[in-house]
Amino acid sequence: MRRPRPVPRWQVVVGAVLIGFGVASIASGGTGGGGRDPRCGDSRVDVAYATPAEAGEICVALADVVRYFRAVGFRIVPRISVIVQTRPAAGASRDARMHGFLDTPGQKIVVFRAPDLAPWGVERDRDLASSFIRHEFVHMAILQVLPTDYVRLRPEWHEFIAYVAQLALMDDALRDRVLARYPDVEAATELTAINELTYAMDPDRFAITAYRTYLARGRDRFGRSAAEVSDRPTADVVSAPTLIASHATFANDRHCRGA
């Protein structure tokens, strides 16, 4: 009998993160930052050029993401600088369309003040702005738990994970407003539809597709996707379906580590 190949740790980690979003969002009821300690505490996070209110929101967003990863078995010890900047003028650079970004070589996150942007056609407020800070902290967390395999995930799948987290950790009312703007956007019928082109064409729609795909497929179907591709060779850069690990494998991995 042919023995199944062990699932690589990076697949276990990413699968665990995706599997856990439903648990985290149910447990929190959508965070929205309510009731969180606005201090970054003992984390090694430097916040620069932020107002006191902005610094508080950044630390709340960090706490939300660290708490989520801890809930699914991964201890995040942030070591990063967060720099708050005024967004470049429209047309000046690609940054003019961005809310922020993670600079992996420099170990920093840049957060833009972008009051004129209305992602998903929803007026930007503090809760919406904070959700984009969480988005960047999720990228940071994935980098920390997968330091050697981070680049093996295609960019669109990094964004898939970050957008699912962003929407899952939103306040329920805000998430409902965002989703209501896209009644025509459905879950992807094939995971290959999650690709670089669909992300580049319209990141806002990509985010809604990602979240609805996650909801529609759920834990079990993500696990089956992994099983279906478990015997296929892994490319240097990992394609869409292969990044999902089974819930059973994750549970076994946590048991072995005593998590």
Describe the structure using short key phrases.
259 residues; alpha/beta; four-stranded mixed β-sheet; disordered C terminus
Give me the oligomer status: single chain
Portion in beta strands: 5-15%
Outline the low-pLDDT stretches: 23-39, 222-259
Number of strands: 4
SS-derived structural category? alpha/beta
Name the strands of the widest sheet in spatial order.
1-2-4-3
> Shape from CA axes?
globular
Based on CA atoms alone, the radius of gyration comes out at: 18 Å
Distance between the termini: 32 Å
Proportion in helices: 40-55%
What layout of secondary structure does this protein have?
Layout: H1 9-28, E1 44-48, H2 52-71, E2 79-86, E3 100-103, E4 108-113, H3 126-145, H4 155-168, H5 172-180, H6 196-201, H7 203-228, H8 247-257
Short structural summary:
The chain is α/β, with parallel strands linked by helices. The chain has 8 helices and 4 strands. Helix 2 packs across helix 3 (126-145) and helix 4 (155-168) packs across helix 7.
Q: Could you characterize the architecture of this molecule?
A:
It is built from eight helices and four strands, in the order H-E-H-E-E-E-H-H-H-H-H-H. With 259 residues, it is α/β, with parallel strands linked by helices. The protein has one domain (9-230, 237-254). The protein is globular and about 45 Å long. The two termini are 32 Å apart. The relative contact order is 0.16.
